[in-house]
Give the backbone structure.
Amino acid sequence: MNIAKLKPIVPGEFIGEIVKVERLSFYGEVDAKQGKLYDGRSIKGKVLVIMRSRGSTVGSYIIYGLKYYGNQPLGIVMVKSEPIVIVGSIISGIPLFEGLPVDLFNKLRDGCVLSVDKAGNLRILEC
Amino acid sequence: MKEPEFQVNESLMLTREEEEILSGKHGEAKAKALEVIIRVAESLDAKRLVRIKHAHISGVSYGTIGEPGLAFIKELSSLGAKVSVPSSLNPIGFDESNPFDQEVLYITQDFYRGQMEILENLKKMGIDLLLTCTPYYTTIFRKYGLRSGDHVAWGESSAVAYANSFLGLRTNREGGPLALMAAIAGRTYYYGMHIRENRVPRVKYVVDLNGLGYNEVTLSLVAEYIASIHEDESPPLLHLDPRNINETTKREIAATLGAAGNIAMIAIPGITKEAEQADIRKTIRIKNNIIIARYKELAQDQGIDPDYYFIGCPHTSEEELEILSKIKSGDKLIVTLSRDVYSRRKDLVQKLVDKGATVLRSTCLIVSNLRSKNIMIATNSYKAYFYLTRKGINVSLIDIKSMIERLGG
């Protein structure tokens, strides 16, 4: 079932387990070398679902660092994106989509499996 | 950075010069830089690009960007990248006058080598090694003739909020690599804060801090709250008596908005020009008890004796140096500032050093490496609180006036 239509920001497609964060500053709250969030959750090979980003403009380099160390997420899905994340995703080739409805964000939890196709069709496969 | 088949979307208007740059006529590096800016422009549905007068580039410390950042910068540099507008840099990971011999910081040989390599490559591009997060306290305004209304591309989230809110400059929160590429291309995407209409506030916040008082710490907590609830695309308007705001407060509010949220601008009546054009559709009264509770949480350890007192996130102003120099004992005081302010006010720096203070140039505690994490730092900076606690360090907030009283000033 097609659950939501997202806007592709950096094109791509992916299927994977999600890791959900409400507000995220890539700098300070993501360890690129370990591929982990500062609370210890791994984002390597996962779908990173974020409500909104915040914080340092160095964030773009941290996203690049995730790719550099081979720890990048499969893709990033946001309620609302911002240039810091967009630039990081572009230079790292990490698919980025925005427009995730807030009520859907609230329903999702870590471990749910979703897919996003090139056109931005989001499907929940397991939750 | 490889984009083999690059095609520009038709809804984005490019000038003839921009098309030339893209074709590689002005070098490979400039073409690459413009390509990334165009891709951002397209993803944001921007209709055109805008020429910028200045770029301030964040993501300079080896401590924050590490090997990946160094690799990125080296690749651009190897293509012969040169900036095409005056550009300046954010702080590095240590005081370059004294990289290793620090009581507070700990810099390895690898860190030093990585940092110097970053700097050499950026210097080769023609960037001014300003090495500060407060470019607005330096001479660049006179030097480059920057004026209210000018379009710039600034990284450094605190400086972005300060520039839009208090200087009338127009910039989005540019990611470090984007600010660098905007410097090379001389342009950025025309979007967000560059567009006059988007700078008009629509949501007004009212707060009464009687009982708590108005200083940089209490107002930063107001800014933190606004950053957590503000959803509108327009800048928030904060209704305050301008008499309750000084230079330190302005800088710390801006830094908080950039750390706790992604707000690029705040309008304060009597200070921000755009506040006069406000088109308020919603007024939010911030409950006094929310701020008081947060104050108790973050400033609760004020009674405890910290290992260090820290001022200079973002970098200290001349006025602050002046009031700080009146303290009795600076043994526990760490001050970070730009090399520009340092060299202009060597007299005040010397006074502080004579009283035992540690004064560090061109760096700050959040982009460097602390010798010990098992310490307690008291600071007036919410931004420092935000990033240092994420490194596992204990931080308590205290306003500069109270700090100076504690240090016998």
Summary: Chain A has one domain: 4-126. The longest strand of chain A covers residues 14-24. The interface with chain B takes residues 9-10, 23, 25, 27-29, 32-33, 38, 52-61, 64-65, 67-69, 81-88, 90-91 of chain A (CB under 8 Å). The domain at 4-126 of chain A is CATH 3.50.30.10 (Glucose Oxidase; domain 1).
